[in-house]
Design goal:
4-stranded mixed beta sheet; alpha+beta; 115 residues
Length: 115
Amino acid sequence: MEFQQVSHLSIPRWLQITNKQVTLHGFSDASEAAYACVVYAVQRNRGKLLKLRCWAEKAKSLLKPIRIPRLELNGALLLARFIAILSTCLKNHVNVYAWTDSQVVLSWLSSPPRN
């Protein structure tokens, strides 16, 4: 292969998940120190658990103090972006469930969008 052709080379990611029946479960949470999310990919075949994969992301809270509700929203945003990336890698053949224990996040999600 010529060196100039290397820039056009594409190597797809393989997440070791082959079945199209994949469920992503994502969780987000926050504290004064950081906010984070974790996503589990569950693959089943005939009702039996086949594979379970886990990915996690975290971000440190800024030096400037931020209230917990804002950090919870940041955690939910991190989770949404992370799930979007994983869904794209899995070619959108997934069911997605996102979980949070924050009433603030749930209120924001249920409110109508603003301009």
